[in-house]
Design a protein that fits this description.
Blueprint (H helix, E strand, L loop, with lengths): L1 H20 L21 E7 L2 E4 L4 E3 L1 E6 L4 E3 L7 E4 L4 E3 L4 E4 L3 E9 L2 E2 L3 E5 L2 E6 L4 E7 L5 E6 L7 E6 L5 E6 L4 E7 L5 E6 L7 E6 L5 E6 L4 E6 L10 E3 L6 E6 L5 E6 L4 E8 L2 E7 L7 E6 L5 E6 L3 E7 L5 E9 L4 E6 L5 E6 L2 E6 L10 E3 L5 E5 L2
Parallel strand pairs: 2-11
Antiparallel strand pairs: 1-4, 3-8, 4-5, 6-9, 7-8, 9-10, 9-11, 12-13, 12-35, 13-14, 15-16, 16-17, 17-18, 19-20, 20-21, 21-22, 23-24, 24-25, 25-26, 27-28, 28-29, 29-30, 31-32, 32-33, 33-34
Length: about 400
């Protein structure tokens, strides 16, 4: 009996020793457990990917944490409950799952930590800016967006433009294009990684009072409305950002002002100030075809924007209202309702990338309005300090 208890005692001791030593990699950050022996295969490093990313406000970026152990083996530990994620800047918050959400313009370092081991710092740039042309001052302002949606710090260019009206940003964020109305041309400016302006170059092509500009989702063609020429020009975008030889469409326009494309780039929508109408055209091989003019409504539309879902077209009307019109399956516009009223001297409008806010230029202010589920606009918040803000883009 004594021998049996003696054998059982030693077996229990052996079991306790094996448990104390452990053999698992998960959660092993190189230290000992309970003061016992160190892990057999300790964690050496953590790498977070992607190392560099750029997203817009209210969008997300998923990160992966890959662990490397002493024996050279690796494992995805992104979901390890012992792993912690951190962000260095309030521009982005990161959840326990490793998914970062952008809440304001700026840059943040995203890092993962397990025990005493820290990962590399992955850079996340929240590149959400509001670009505003000022027709009076001849400038282009690049404004940060705060977490609430307001305009933050604005950096305004020198007087580089002559009555700039429209502005568009290339889909890959490399260039800003400004419709230089009195200068009769398009000026394109290189953009830095943070969205700020760099060198600006005047285009050689001449237009007849270019009013607005929009770029197709592929970034291959720019569409420019000519207020005096009663035309829309389709211009190929060259490798250096300049515009190539343009193709003109003149049917269906009368002093065209605003222009917008649906999310797929297959339909174009144009406002006509002279006869108070709205034109929609099919985009085919880069050119506008099959243009159809709607009946005037007495609202004198200027700016136009399509929501990211492609279901609603919004018009900034010179009679102090914003109209919301349903987009039909064939691209035509259905019934319109008043989304907002009492906004004086409205010119242009632009959605944020998620379609939750609509930004407007009017008077000497830039406002943003939350978009309600029914398409109407909530209470708007304004930022003053402009002279005559006109064109607006929120890439």
């Amino acid at each position: 009996m004594k021998q049996a208890w003696h054998g059982l005692f030693w077996r229990l001791c052996l079991l306790m020793a094996l448990t104390a030593c452990g053999g698992s990699n998960v959660g092993s950050a190189g230290g000992s457990i309970g003061g016992g022996a160190p892990p057999a295969n300790p964690l050496v490093s953590i790498v977070v990917t992607p190392a560099n990313a750029r997203i817009g406000i209210e969008t997300t970026q998923a990160y992966t944490a890959t662990a490397t152990y002493r024996d050279g083996s690796t494992a995805d530990i992104s979901a390890d409950p012992m792993l912690t994620w951190s962000s260095s800047d309030p521009a982005a918050i990161v959840a326990a799952s490793g998914v970062a959400t952008a809440v304001a313009s700026g840059a943040a370092n995203i890092q993962a930590t397990l025990g005493a081991v820290n990962s590399n710092m992955a850079t996340l740039r929240v590149r959400s800016r509001v670009y505003v042309t000022d027709a009076n001052s001849g400038t282009l302002s690049v404004c940060a967006i705060t977490a609430s949606g307001n305009l933050g710090t604005c950096n305004t260019s020198d007087r580089l433009f002559n009555s700039p009206t429209g502005v568009a940003i290339h889909p890959d964020g490399t260039f800003a294009y400004v419709a230089n109305k009195a200068g009769q041309n398009i000026i394109h400016c290189a953009l830095q990684n943070d969205g700020e302006l760099e060198a600006c170059v005047e285009g050689a092509a001449l237009f007849r009072s270019p009013a607005s500009i929009v770029i197709n989702p592929a970034g291959t063609t720019a569409y420019v409305t000519e207020a005096v020429g009663d035309a829309v020009q389709a211009c190929p975008i060259q490798v250096d950002g300049s515009l190539g030889n343009c193709v003109s469409t003149r049917s269906g326009f009368s002093r065209p002002e605003g222009i917008a494309l649906n999310p797929s780039g297959t339909m174009a929508y144009v406002t006509n100030q002279a006869n108070d109408t709205f034109t929609h055209c099919t985009v085919s091989d880069g050119s506008l075809t099959a243009c159809v003019v709607t009946v005037g409504t007495g609202l004198i539309p200027i700016g136009v924007a399509i929501n990211p879902a492609g279901t609603l077209a919004y018009r900034a009307n010179n009679v102090e209202t914003v109209s919301s019109c349903s987009v039909q399956v064939n691209g035509s516009l259905g019934p319109c309702t008043t989304a907002a009223s009492g906004i004086r001297f409205l010119t242009h409008i632009a959605f944020n990338p998620t379609g939750t806010k609509l930004y407007l230029t009017h008077g000497d202010e830039v406002s943003f309005c939350p978009v309600n589920p029914d398409g109407s606009l909530g209470a708007c918040t304004s930022t003053a300090g402009f002279s005559f803000p006109y064109g607006i883009a929120v890439p």
